[in-house]
Amino acid sequence: MNLEGLEMIAVLVVVVLFVKVLEQFGLLEASYDDSVEDELELSAVRHRPEGLEKLEAQTRFSRKELQILYRGFKNECPSGVVNEDTFKDIYSQFFPQGDASTYAHFLFNAFDTDHNGSVSFEDFVMGLSILLRGSVQEKLNWAFNLYDINKDGYITKEEMLDIMKAIYDMMGKCTYPILKEETPRQHVDMFFQKMDKNKDGVVTIDEFIDCCQNDENIMRSMQLFENVI
Amino acid sequence: MAAGVAAWLPLARAAAIGWMPVANCPMPIAPRDHSKRQDELIILNVSGRRFQTWRTTLDRYPDTLLGSSEKEFFYNEETKEYFFDRDPDAFRSVLNFYRTGKLHYPRYECISAYDEELAFFGIIPEIIGDCCYEEYKDRKRENAERLMDDQEENKDSKLPNMNFRETMWRAFENPHTSTMALVFYYVTGFFIAVSVITNVVETVPCGSTPNQKDVPCGERYTVAFFCMDTACVMIFTVEYLLRLFAAPSRYRFMRSVMSIIDVVAILPYYIGLVMTNNEDVSGAFVTLRVFRVFRIFKFSRHSQGLRILGYTLKSCASELGFLLFSLTMAIIIFATVMFYAEKGSSSSKFTSIPASFWYTIVTMTTLGYGDMVPKTIAGKIFGSICSLSGVLVIALPVPVIVSNFSRIYHQNQRADKRRAQKKARLARIRIAKTCSSNAYLQRKRNGLLSELLDLTTSEEEQQHLNKSTSLLESQHHHLLHCLEKTTSLSLSLSLSLSLSLSLAVSQAHEFIDEQMFEQNCVESALQSYPSRSPSLSSQEGFTGTCCSCRSRKSIPLPNSSMSTTHTHTQGLQELSALHIQCAEQQGHSSSRSSLNMQPNEVGRFNCRERQITTAIISIPSPPAPIPEGDGHGPPNPGPSISTTASSNIVKVSAL
């Protein structure tokens, strides 16, 4: 039995080898589908911003300022758009001691106004225009938009907790005094105490703006970054 | 923080507004940017090629030259541009770094030139991008190895104060340093060969005695072979003990491979002496004799190629390991298959799987002895597959090993070539330098000549004197003159010129025998002034030769102003100090006395009146390594004198 069996096996092996050799010479076509479409993957997403005049009209930057901004932007991102990972990398460089990726994610969403997953130059410059040259109302609007993660018009305690934890994460482990587990939560409670007038557990845009306008500290710090560009 | 993302800082700061409503305390005041500079184009003129870029581009990296205020040093007011006298090609990479944030290393650039450029512009090489970093590191390593090679060459050079032990160690490691070492080298080599041949011949059957058939020579001429063996082992033992004594670190020496081989080579003999002719241990004794063949490994000290081979095998250990592993796998597979295939056939030699190992190995290495052959069809089929795959499995790792060997071998060859070329190169450089130094003395002489023989100059001498020297030259000469005045000594022409000439001649030979070389120097120097003063003894040959060389060019100047510079103070400057040091090493007071000539012997323009007989201070250049050896290692460019312990002749190499 073993003789017969082994002979069969031997013959089989020889046949398989033969087939393989033929395949090599292209005489036998192997039946598997080639996905040629992989070759045609889009090499790069390129984005060209709108004209200088249009941007000048839409933002509060001067022509020269826009030129400077665009040059810096295009240098860092030659393809013209920033995707979330790049943005996270860039933002993390400013906070080497902690983990800035969560906050960068929220920030990215705040800049990406059309929610297409990438921040183009228009988004970038619009955001900067609001933050640097906008009125207090607009700035507070922007901040509210940042905190409202699901963009439903209400800031819930969970959303605020996420934001708060992200901010505290940026500080890192080596702080003085040591960051405790409940610090973000306490901070959120304090925030809600201040902001939530009708105590319904959420903060609306009006409550937010009213409250902030009455707070001197916040008003003063809003003017802090006037001359960044 | 990576300065490359400085462009995003405005965004980060602006986004900080998001923290404001959440914060409990007031924020600190922001720094104001007082210099509200408009973004402007600045022009960087690098050796004529103009590069233009925005100021903010350069400001991205404030800790580099271009990004900081350091570039203001290079600002040219008239042309309103920054001028750098550097290589424009290398500057391209530097400027691209500012533009793109990534530093690239161009392949065509020389590694040291590139390093210098980076150092000039204040950029650390570690930020070279990933794409180019490996290449950069490889080239840097290669360069460093080359420099290390050169340095090792210089380490070989003799330090004057080596004690006996160090001399001996050096002699052992590098047999070319002295004749004794060379003799020792050849003697040991000879005895190794003798020992190996003896071991081989011992087993040859030589002649048959009437009562027995062929006996090996070893048993026939026992005494002779024993004596030979003893002699060899004695030599090896002495050599080993000498090496052990001379080794700078005995513990490290004892752990080195060569010393282990030495020990293993001579141990069987001693063990054999100690052991009696017992029956039960004589079997072990015979085994020990096998170790005598290790003596052949001692040849690796004598052969560079063997060492390379050994090093290659060591460095290819992973490939060899892989080869072994894959072969073992294949052997086991095929042996099993063959065993089961041949199980059925009668009178099959494949009695067990381990027995089939032999067949598999012989087949896979395509040896095919034929003592075991498969008889069944299945066995034959599998056997043929086995031999085909054997060829493949062996052929695959071999090129890797070969390429490794070739790389190491070529490296070695290149090192040898570099060493050979270095001597010729340095000789040529030295000749060029002595020409410049001779120009100084020539000028000095001409100056005196014109002073003393003012009106009676001939035409050619006039021309000679009026040979214009460049500003640089005249400044340099002035400097040397100042030094002379400071030290109240003066420079003289040394035998360096003759030395360099003879060097050029002997450069034809790769290997310069030191003794011969010195001999040449002395002879050539001596020939120049055959009528030396007989009072100079042979031990003062050095002073004599120097002086003789000098006196050849002596011009009879009855009242040379130079005589006033003869001061034989003991407060000698470094130049003379070197000479005196040589004199001290010679340990002859008489030589020193020859220097203390009376100052009133001004009649003879003889260098014996001079303190300095050697040094030429040439144009300061970084002290290049000299194969003949550095002397006392003066930090400033000065003459280097090296002494050999064996002879009291001092070689002078002027740098």
Layout of SSEs?
The complex is a heterodimer of chains A (229) and B (655).
Chain A: H1 2-24, H2 52-58, H3 63-76, E1 81-83, H4 84-94, H5 101-111, E2 118-120, H6 121-133, H7 136-147, E3 154-156, H8 157-171, H9 183-195, E4 202-204, H10 205-214, H11 216-222
Chain B: H1 9-15, E1 41-46, E2 49-54, H2 55-59, E3 75-76, E4 81-84, H3 88-100, H4 111-120, H5 130-156, H6 164-173, H7 179-202, H8 217-220, H9 222-246, H10 250-255, H11 257-274, H12 279-290, H13 304-315, H14 317-341, H15 353-364, H16 377-395, H17 398-452, H18 459-465, H19 471-487, H20 496-506, H21 514-528, H22 541-552, H23 574-586, H24 589-595, E5 640-643, E6 650-653
Parallel strand pairs in B: 1-4
Antiparallel strand pairs in B: 1-2, 3-4, 5-6
Task: Describe the protein's architecture and organization.
Chain A has 229 residues and is mainly alpha-helical. Chain A has one domain (3-23, 51-226): EF-hand (Recoverin, domain 1). Chain A is 59% helix and 5% strand. In chain A, the strands form 2 sheets. Chain A has a two-stranded antiparallel ribbon with strand order 1-2. In chain A, helix 4 (84-94) crosses helix 5, helix 5 (101-111) packs across helix 8 and helix 7 packs across helix 10. The radius of gyration of chain A is 29 Å and the shape is elongated. The N and C termini of chain A lie far apart (89 Å). Chain B has 655 residues and is mainly α. Among the domains of chain B are: 41-157, Potassium Channel Kv1.1, Chain A (2-Layer Sandwich); 174-302, Voltage-gated potassium channels. Chain C (Four Helix Bundle (Hemerythrin (Met), subunit A)), CATH 1.20.120.350; 311-427, Orthogonal Bundle (Helix Hairpins), CATH 1.10.287. Chain B is 56% helix and 4% strand. In chain B, helix 14 crosses helix 15 and helix 21 crosses helix 22 (541-552). The longest helix of chain B has 55 residues, at 398-452. Chain B is flat, with a radius of gyration of 38 Å. Mean pLDDT of chain B is 71; it is low at 494-655. Chains A and B meet through helix 1, helix 3, helix 4, helix 6 and helix 7 of A and helix 1 and helix 16 of B.
